[in-house]
UniProtKB/TrEMBL annotation:
The lineage of its organism: Bacteria, Bacillati, Bacillota, Clostridia, Eubacteriales. It is found in: Cytoplasm. This is Methylated-DNA--protein-cysteine methyltransferase. Residues 72-151 form the Methylated-DNA-[protein]-cysteine S-methyltransferase DNA binding domain. One of its GO terms (molecular function) is methylated-DNA-[protein]-cysteine S-methyltransferase activity. It comes from the Bacteria. This enzyme catalyzes only one turnover and therefore is not strictly catalytic. According to one definition, an enzyme is a biocatalyst that acts repeatedly and over many reaction cycles. The keyword Zinc does not apply. Keywords: Cytoplasm, DNA damage, DNA repair, Methyltransferase, Transferase. Its EC number is 2.1.1.63. It is an enzyme of class 2 (transferase). Its main location: cytoplasm. It catalyses: a 6-O-methyl-2'-deoxyguanosine in DNA + L-cysteinyl-[protein] = S-methyl-L-cysteinyl-[protein] + a 2'-deoxyguanosine in DNA; a 4-O-methyl-thymidine in DNA + L-cysteinyl-[protein] = a thymidine in DNA + S-methyl-L-cysteinyl-[protein].
Amino acid sequence: MNNIFYYETIIGKIGIVENGMAITQMNFAEKMPKGININETVLLKRANMQLQEYFCGKRKIFDLPLAPSGTEFQQKVWNSLLEIPYGKTKSYKDIAKNVGNIKAARAVGMANNKNPIFIIIPCHRVIGANGKLVGYAGGLSVKEKLLAIEKQNYESIIAIRSYQVKM
């Protein structure tokens, strides 16, 4: 049985869904998917805790079982998104190249748009070839905020490492 629970975050209310074994989707609104129980499970609590740590800059990598539902191509794109390091961005063209079809940047954009587990599968780290922010299910202001969180914390890590090396 699938379960959902809603959590308040710095980017608004987020619903997290699990199937008893893995996180399957997230949503921004109180949009209730059909056939799902409102039930805060141990896995959902763990996912929320990791999201809150991410928002505070304490978590760079999520450690959760994931089971997004999508086509074979979408799965390839989503796996490629998981390879984008914290604090970094890639273009749609970069992802297309990574999944083996350099001409598929538009299809990558569509797969990115269908990512059912945003933030954890970091579709917000994908930007236009010109470096501009383009498209995000939660809106560009949310994408900008997520990237700002990562940039700030990434630069702090680099500054600390630089300081440690100089000692």
